[in-house]
């Protein structure tokens, strides 16, 4: 069984190892710190005491702040997302390769949706790297009600074969949006 909980400082090494399995040698990604008072919520998935996944949600009051926080999607003004009072940017989503396909990403995303709901988020935005690997977030986001509103090719992002696609790289930067229905 997978347990999802807030990330602790003692998880940094384990989560960095999970992230490193997804990136080429010259790439890195610094996970944010869990800072609920600042609007950033980092969750880890744990199975049998081992960290097997990590994902984060940062909340913002306007789309310009969301755009500035994105890593892959570089948009012209305005950002093609609904006008809403509170945004949740889903980022830093990584699952250990040995645990891909076990629902770890879904559990993390569902927990972050709950956190977002509790914090007034009315639109979730994901700045995602879609690739040819079996763990591409395209399926995860679609399964959780996200609409893909924009993609652009980032094929050839590494020298040599892509770490996910191999020699025939199909990588895309993707912007996905999930609006929360008003009740």
Helix content: 10-25%
What is the percentage of strand-forming residues?
25-35%
Q: What is the SS-derived class? A: alpha+beta
Poorly predicted segments: none
How confident is the prediction overall: mean pLDDT?
Answer: 84
Q: Rough shape?
A: globular
**What is the strand arrangement across the widest sheet?**
1-2-3-4-5-7-6
Roughly how many Å is the radius of gyration?
16 Å
What is the distance, rounded to the nearest whole angstrom, between the alpha carbons of the first and last residues? 32 Å
Per DSSP E runs of 2 or more residues, the count of β-strands stands at 7
Largest sheet composition? 7 strands, mixed
Query: How many alpha or pi helices?
Result: 4
Spell out the helices and strands N to C.
Answer: EHEEHEHEHEE
């Amino acid at each position: 069984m997978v347990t999802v909980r807030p990330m602790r400082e003692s998880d940094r090494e384990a989560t960095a190892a999970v992230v490193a399995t997804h990136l080429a040698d010259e790439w890195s990604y610094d996970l944010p710190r869990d800072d609920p008072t600042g609007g950033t919520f980092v969750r880890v998935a744990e199975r049998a005491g081992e960290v097997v996944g990590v994902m984060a949600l940062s909340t913002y009051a306007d789309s310009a702040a969301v755009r500035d926080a994105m890593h892959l999607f570089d948009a012209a003004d305005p950002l093609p997302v609904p006008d809403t009072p509170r945004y949740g940017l889903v980022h830093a989503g990584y699952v250990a390769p040995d645990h891909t396909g076990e629902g770890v990403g879904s559990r993390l995303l569902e927990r972050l949706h709950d956190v977002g709901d509790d914090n007034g988020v009315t639109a979730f935005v994901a700045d995602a790297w879609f690739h040819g690997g079996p763990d591409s977030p395209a399926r995860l986001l679609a399964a959780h009600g996200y609409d893909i509103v924009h993609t652009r090719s980032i094929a050839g992002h590494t020298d040599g074969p892509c770490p996910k696609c191999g020699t025939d790289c199909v990588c895309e930067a993707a912007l996905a949006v999930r609006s929360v229905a008003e009740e």
